[in-house]
Amino acid sequence: MRRVAARQGGVVSSRQAADAGYSVEQIRERLADGRWVRIRYGQYAERVDLSGMAPWDRQIFHHRQLVHAAVNSMKRGTAIVSHHSALILHGVPIWRADLREAQLTRTTGRCGVKAGVRHHRGTLDPQHIAEIDGLAVTSLARATVETAALGSFEAAVVSADAAMRHPRFDHEELRRLLELTEHWAGGPTIRSALAFADPLAESVGESRLRVLMRTEGLPVPTLQAVFEDDAGPIGRVDFLFPDEDTVVEFDGMMKYADQSRGILIREKLREDRLRARGLQVVRITWSDLDHPVRTAMRIRGAFTRSRRTPLAG
Q1: Which residue numbers delimit the AbiEi antitoxin N-terminal domain (predicted)?
Q2: Are 166 and 92 in contact (CB under 8 A)?
Q3: How far apart are CA 20 and CA 28, in angstroms?
């Protein structure tokens, strides 16, 4: 049974468990003592210790199980994993999506939400279907467009930035999809978010910060600019406003959580070298993203300071 579960995201159905020799009483016993967990009606998985995972990663893990359980409950070939569920299987980050719902596009049945699954009705061209972990899923470009149609501009940009960095992303397929979705209800968000998307944004935080800068009317920054000085390469910076001699770095903090004091010192020295070149450096954290006006004012404050300070040679 574990071999079957391994092909299905760790999930097995009650019928598959019975075929492996488990009685109804044995299934109930394992659920009662915590060895197994019920993912949805008739679909189970062995309990896994997730205490070492970050909360967000735990949510992604549970969502993957829910997707496998939903597909495993249906007749083979009638459901395709789509929207943000497909993005998750492709390994693309999402933002502000309801991970309590698995997203499926079906060739039969009704639309709507039932038992933790949101059913979309439609027929997909084979070119827009891929296979991941044994599941039929919408292609990366298609899933990006589908998700953008239902979410906010910010959420769409977060996923689109990441999707465009992915080696499986097909830009020609995206062009065709933009024509196909011109009259979709979410068409304006699709077009504006994908026009704004930039694969040089390397994290969810950087993508959200790009949206904040746009919303607050800041100039368009250069992403991943490279600097050096007489001592050699300094490295890349997240955002550079060249006309304002200002660098903005998104500091997610998580990247330093398990690092040594030496790495933190090197990061401080790197920032000192940037300042020695006459650049203003602004560090933005996750909490700053929840205060867009205040954060934009901090960046504009750096612009003002740079005009008072001659740029170093």
Answers
A1: 2-42
A2: yes
A3: 15
In terms of Cα–Cα distance, which of 46, 95, 48, 39 is closest to 67? 39
Six token digits for residue 180: 């196909």
- CATH fold group of domain 205-308: Endonuclease; Chain A (3.40.960)
- DSSP symbol at 53: S
Which of the two residues, 251 and 82, has the higher pLDDT score? 82
CA distance 120 to 104: 6
Residue 66, burial from CB neighbour count under 10 angstroms (0-12, 13-18, 19+): buried
Residue 168 has pLDDT above 70, yes or no: yes
Report H helices in 197-235.
Answer: 204-215
pTM assigned to the model: 0.90
- Check residue 256 and give its pLDDT: 47
233 φ, ψ (degrees, to nearest 5): -65, 135
Q: Count Cβ neighbours within 10 Å for each residue of 253-283 and write b for 16 or more, e otherwise.
A: eeeeeeeeeeeeeebeebbebbeeeebbebe
- Cβ atoms within 10 Å of 89's Cβ, excluding its own: 23
C-alpha of 76 from chain center: 28
254 pLDDT higher than 70: no
Scanning the structure block, which residue is given the tokens 């994993």? 81
| Greatest alpha-carbon span in the chain | 79
- Domain residue limits, the chain: 1-48, 49-199, 205-308
